[in-house]
Write a structure and sequence with these properties.
The complex is a heterodimer of chains A (about 650) and B (about 140). Chain A is of the alpha/beta class. Chain A has 4 domains: about 15-145, Rossmann fold (3-Layer(aba) Sandwich); about 150-245 and about 330-340 and about 520-575, FAD/NAD(P)-binding domain (3-Layer(bba) Sandwich); about 255-315, no CATH class; about 345-505, 3-Layer(bba) Sandwich (FAD/NAD(P)-binding domain), CATH 3.50.50. In chain A, about 25% of the residues lie in helices and about 25% in strands. In chain A, the strands form 11 sheets. A 5-stranded parallel β-sheet of chain A has the order 10-7-6-18-29. A 5-stranded parallel β-sheet of chain A has the order 20-27-21-22-23. In chain A, strands 2-1-3-4 form a 4-stranded parallel β-sheet, sandwiched between helices. Chain A is elongated and about 95 Å long. Mean pLDDT of chain A is about 95; it is low at about 1-5. By secondary structure, chain B is an alpha/beta fold. Chain B has a single domain, classed as Rossmann fold (3-Layer(aba) Sandwich), CATH 3.40.50. Chain B is about 40% helix and about 15% strand. Chain B has helices at about 15-25, 45-55, 75-90, 110-125, 135-140, and strands at about 5-10, 35-40, 60-65, 100-105. Chain B has a 4-stranded parallel β-sheet, with helices on both faces. The termini of chain B are far apart. Classes of the chains: A alpha/beta (about 650), B alpha/beta (about 140). The interface of A and B includes residues 1, 115, 130 and 604 of A.
Chain lengths: ~650, ~140
Amino acid sequence: MTAKTTKKKDKRIGLFVCHCGVNIASVVDVEKVAEALKEYPGVTFSTDYVYMCSDPGQQMIIDTIKEKHLDGIIVAACSPTLHEKTFQEAARLAGLNPYQIEIANIREQDSWVHTDREKATRKAVRIVKSHVEKALRNENLEPIKVDVKKRALIIGGGISGLQAALDIAEHGYEVILVEKNPSIGGKMIQLSETFPTLDCSQCILTPKMVEVSRHPRIKLLTYHEVDSISGFVGNFKVRIKKKPRYVDESLCNLCGECEKVCPQIVPDEFNMGLSFRKAVYLPFPQAIPGTYTLDEAHCLGLSPVRCGKCKDVCDKMAIDYDMKETFFEEEVGAVVVATGYDLYTMQALGEYGGEKYEDVVNGLEFERILSASGPTGGVVLRPSDGKVPKSVVFVQCSGSRDTEKHNPYCSKICCMYTAKHAMLYKHRVPDGQATVFYIDVRTGGKGFDEFYQRAVEEDKILYIRGKVSKIFKEGDKLVVWGVDTLTGKKVEVEADLVVLAMAMVKADGVQDLLKKLKVSTDIHGFVAEAHPKLRPVESLNAGFYLAGCAHGPKDIPEAVAQASAAAAKVGDLFAQNELVHEPTVVPVNDELCSGCGICITMCPYGARSLDPERGVAVVNEILCEGCGACAAACPSGAAQQRNQTDDQIFSMLRAMLRE
Amino acid sequence: MFEPQIMCFLCKWCTSTAADMAGTSRLQYSPNNINMRVMCSSRVDPQHVLYAFKEGADGVFIGGCHPGDCHYVEGNYKTLRRVTLFKKMLGDLGVDPRRLRLEWISAAEGKKYAETMDEFAEQIRALGPLQLNERALASEVIKDE
């Protein structure tokens, strides 16, 4: 090994062997262990005691450290997961650096698993010796500290982003909310009513939107995008792109004259293309901020031969064709990723004809058809000819739970919203027939199964268990071919309208953003959580938190709960004046580093990079989690983990194995 | 009877916790092993393994988290790749690759840990003491400090 030895010849090590009552002492001869180490090189003091973790036990350790001027101690006792902190604290009280404490586990990994007293004692001696070798080479370490910028960035202005922004702002911290669209509101603002209470979605969301826009600690940036991000937890620098709206939001008074004169007609995204808007438009009546936006892709005024009609009629002189995209920088300490989802495309499910037939719609399109603010004013009419559909077929799991061709996962909300769709349809068209094809009906949630039962029993919706193989047109009817797996028969249903409960997939284009944030994703492109059970709202990349459907399919209450949880986690971070990080990281020895870059590819946290000027690897110690994968990979021994160097490992191996 | 020495490198988050759990559950296994706790199985350098063989280990065991459960995202995959390659090299050095074993044992699998320890000890007993050839002992990669 090329690593230099760090052993201090004159270091004074103390050993404290615990009996743990009879837990250790009944199998391991603790006196013999203490005795065996008395003469071991480096050990200046060795004793045993009945309970080291007791107050007198700790006091003995504290007193001995002071009296014998110990530079390091080994407590041979239970697993370090139990009392490492206890003894570190005791050492601190005695004026010893806590990183000079070693715990030799002779209980869980020795006395409790063996019965042969002689062998267990010999094993304990070897374990303790190895820790003496390590202790002789331990360095004094101080936790790494760094300031925290108490300001959060929220990416995405849907329900999750709004909730997270409000919660963090209510904790007393500043928030910057970035939304790429002209208005906040996300997908939820497009919904008609919400299951299982049938609350009007807009009615419950718009007050939150207003609250966000008026909150003194929230800086709302709609029609903006995150361009790049640098830095690390507590200290991010975010470059934000302001897209040109071509309308000055501070001047626009929503008179709507511009829209009247605009000659350009464009499919309306808010209504899922089921109606039209102008090139200068207000996304929807309650849009926040309340301002018109000029869509540069469709405006004639921006082309060389200028149209200019809207500018002519704008009394407020709010329209400016010369706006350009601009960039600016903000400093934040934490980032909440609430980028939402999109629906699986109709093109992907060719056999259902969504691309070819106007009357095959997806769930969000049907939400707009049902919505009182939608293109039909809430009257259920089919898109092709505006007739009231007398037979509607709903196809659940369209693109979900299909391991062969589509998405293997369950999109989670479709069972419930399909029950809601069918129910709302029946309320509007009582003599109509609603048929649902399903694989399973999953109604895990408060009041969910009751809601589904109501759909079946009160609203007489026909549920057929089976998948749909093909949908095609015959005359002005759609024919749905499927199978009823309960009777084992093929089924053919004629429909006027088909609603596909399309799978929820990662938001369109979000992968580029996530790559910039260095936030890892699962195989489906949803943001990955740090731990599936215990850290569900944090990303592995420190300082990034996740909320809502960016993380995976979920319904509104779950998205809100996750957003609040993410906000609470941000609060945890901001409650600290400085961040404290374990110092057992893996620095680089410049003299040994050849700049090969292998360690950089090993690091899952992006903590290592190449200094282009000096040609050596450098480490951001705040990002390093201390796994040591780079240390094992470094061919020159330049990457050495603090207090677990190769030298320490080799000397421990020697002490353990050499008889 | 020959009693082998088994050197175990256990990841702090999963397998070392499983070893603790075996203790808490008072599961008994033969005392052939001795454990070193590392932060992640990916901290284990093949040189550590060679050194353990040179210092007298008849078998070396590496325990990590199950695929997908690594505390450090993907450390266990790195370990898997290293161990797979390294086993091929071990044969060239005159060490039976079966003397090196990699297992995924989660923090909840105390029983699996205890059973694996007995099973591996038995396997190494059957292989007999490790006889390193002189060339391997003299090799650069496992020379003393």
